[in-house]
């Protein structure tokens, strides 16, 4: 089989906060990837320029060799910026491989172990409110599970009453007969997180996510032993090695690597296998674009320990203050029905490569305008009543 030499490597910053990668080969195959790193877009763009210099002219068939060179070929490695850039490249390479062979990527990972993929959608915003109505709307859309932020900003040690509303929100969602994951978002410190975890336990959330910052594996392990609720995290872990201390300390029940942050399909596939060894479930993080979702679904289809997939349809982050740049999960797709939710699930992607078609003309048009008119997305900066910084 003739080599598929990479002849073009392009990046596109698009609203609401996504970074797409486009590769083209000498035999005319186009592959799409996503290296979105929310709040650090320009840094990833810079890292991609280094990858462009190194891999235009490389054989796109050699995914593993390209991955190893991109990761190990420089003295400094890992971390969110470099791994997100590598993610975009790796996903696009797998897209090319599947298209070249005429099969979905999941076939190249050993075939499917399920016929459909359970998904959840977001409710509420950064400061959650109107939860009951939002959950009702999600149920009407076909979802059987949702996720919401646990709290707004909370002090290092705060009045326990600030946690009461969270409990009531969880109870209201559960009354609708649907599951709810509760994202602590690393906003709470140990003294508050352990209180909230205990308060939520009787109401059986599907999981609690990032109960503490990912710098605290020992403390998270302590929390895991203190409550029966499944502990989930992983969006801010970028390699198998980053997951290792959490697995060895029995700190988590659900791994949530993000395919756009953790080195793409190649490393997500390896993380899935590693976590299965520790009887840990897989629920890929993906509150971002359609390419990342499609890439995550390749693993979801083929990994035995997969349980549920995050998707960003109608998420609050997709709404822009400038209506011209409010883009949603389906905005850049030729056929948005590939992500249609039925009875809480999305069907297996059957098309070659990632199984989605990107509207390239629209991507180019919107990206050019967006880069000219807008700064890249930034997360909010929160301060407490005393003026000190609080976790977002």
Short key terms for the protein model shown above:
392 residues, alpha/beta, nine-stranded mixed beta sheet, three-stranded antiparallel beta sheet, 14 strands, 37% helix, 15% strand
Description:
With 392 residues, the protein is an alpha/beta fold. Helix content is 37%, strand content 15%. It is built from twelve helices and 14 strands. It has helices at residues 41-55, 63-72, 80-101, 105-108, 131-141, 164-174, 190-200, 217-226, 240-248, 264-277, 290-302, 360-373; strands at 6-14, 18-25, 30-34, 116-122, 145-149, 179-183, 207-209, 231-233, 254-255, 281-282, 309-310, 345-347, 382-383, 389-390. Strands 4, 5, 6, 7, 8, 9, 10, 11 and 12 form a nine-stranded mixed β-sheet that branches. It has a three-stranded antiparallel β-sheet with strand order 1-2-3. It has a two-stranded antiparallel ribbon with strand order 13-14. A hairpin with a 3-residue loop joins strand 1 and strand 2 (18-25). Helix 1 (41-55) packs across helix 3, helix 2 (63-72) packs antiparallel against helix 3 (80-101) and helix 10 runs parallel beside helix 11. It is globular, with a radius of gyration of 20 Å. The mean pLDDT is 97.
Give the helices and strands, then pairings:
Elements (H helix, E strand, L loop, with lengths): L5 E9 L3 E8 L4 E5 L6 H15 L7 H10 L7 H22 L3 H4 L7 E7 L8 H11 L3 E5 L14 H11 L4 E5 L6 H11 L6 E3 L7 H10 L4 E3 L6 H9 L5 E2 L8 H14 L3 E2 L7 H13 L6 E2 L34 E3 L12 H14 L8 E2 L5 E2 L2
Parallel strand pairs: 4-5, 4-11, 5-6, 6-7, 7-8, 8-9, 9-10
Antiparallel strand pairs: 1-2, 2-3, 4-12, 13-14
Helix pairs in contact: 1-3, 2-3, 10-11
